[in-house]
Amino acid sequence: MSSRFNRCFLFLMLMIVLVISPVFGSDLQKMTREDYAIIKDKIYELKERIKRLEEHKQQQQQQYQYDPEKLASEIDELNEEIEEYTVILEKVERKSLLDIINVSAELRTQFDWFDFKGHDYEPYTEKKLGSELHERVHMMPTNRLRLNFRAYLNNSIKFTSRINMLHHWFDDDYPVYPELNFLNTARKPHNLDLKVERAYIDYFFEPLTNLPIALTFGRVPTTDGLPSDLKENTPRKSTYPGLAYDCETDGVALSALMDEYIPLNHPAIRLLWVRRLDDNTQYFLDQKLSDKYGVYRKDDSAMDTLNIYIGQFETYLPSPLSRTLLMANFLWIPNAPSSDLRYIPELKDFYDEDTALLYADVPESEGEVSKLTLFIESKNIFNTGLDWFFDICFLRSKAKGALRFMFIPEALGMTGEPVLARHAYDIYVNEQTSDNIAHQLAALKTAPPPIGLLNSDGVSDRNATAFHAGFRYTFPIPKLNKPIFGCEYNHASRYWFGINAGSVDELHKLDIRGSVWDFYYIQPITRNFLSRLSCTIAEFDYDDGMSFYHGDPLAIDHRVSQISFMVDARF
Questions:
Q1: Number of separate domains in the chain
Q2: pTM (2 decimals)?
Q3: Which of 124, 235, 262, 399 could form a disulfide with 367 if both were Cys (CB 3.0 to 4.6 A apart)?
């Protein structure tokens, strides 16, 4: 009886420890780990005792005199004791796992109405085609699922990840934006697959006294750029301002906290290196581009490696503005690789290696890009319920070359140096040419102009500016769960290059060369459940060039409005 009483008392005490340990914190969590080891040893000891008793029971000659019934009863009692300890062990194991892993989820259903007005244009020109178009999309429904994981492996290592599913109802053929979709594969509507948006390790160390540094590597947190936390009504989810950089990113980053070295409020210096791998895959956006087989066989027409370097200084202001964040961000692309436009159907024939009429003159680099972004965001300023932000960006590009499609006169029995393919007809049509040659020259008129870094000549440097400003106000109405109204405005000049493909809004408004107004109303329903109604009006002054940073932006008259309603559950 004494043995059973001791076991019952130990079982009761361990259950009490398991219940109260989450309340009383880390000291009891340490005791739980000690209990875990003790219980494992106890179970092992009991199993060994049962094993010995079973052996004695099976022996015809026993070393000791045991009553068979008493022996069976003792074995049952030990099995019961093991079962009690196993229950405790399972609870300890479960709690130990939950201590280091945090899992959360988000489910959003959104309905969008789009309205478009504007003209189509003759390729590579500002000449309008036909009459003005007016097109609508009526109530496009979308589901978005996010699963967030965090694991605190120890005091020095933290793992974070997020996987996404973003899907239009009954639609598996949504267009890709932008064409170079390595920037936003988990942030665009797709099929029902879960895609990894983030997966990175933070390793914390202190090389010098009072200089804590975090080394971050993997798929790093560069989406949900600030100030998207205001409209999304979430804590800060990104390291960088959206106007500077908002894309899915694989890279390596360093963050240093400078509290002991700079007399400001939580100052930090961050450095990030991003590298787009030189990929020799044969297909791009489901179109076959190359017959180069083997990972080590270079495809000369493929876009070369892209390196991006980002440096950032940030700090909070002193009290009473301690919730005001300041940032200065510098982004540098030392060599912007030339474009690979084989996936554009209209240009595929100009890459044809079997024709002798022309060739693609591809520079090693189109040029260099640098961006300086200044950002300020203040929350609940002076306890008024008002949040506001402002950021401005200055961009400078230096040209080094352009992709040119060149016509070879010798291929048609003519003399002269190679000329731009789009000019070949005008130059040679007056010579003695057959109808067949004239037809071939006419086909070259559809070739694009030189495609450089935000230019169409390969030599022009560009400057651009963009700014983004806005506010939101939380109404002090507890009966309505303190609803929120917000307004934002952004504008960018002709040669702007936003790098904002991973943003959550469908229009990618911070990439638009033009003006955008954005209004929204957030209605919290419960702590983990809210709805939002928003209206966005975008005026496009210039197009996207040939894509990404390639080509000279041309004037357009597109106007897009979007009305959205969404419900969001976070749990």
A1: 2
A2: 0.80
A3: 399
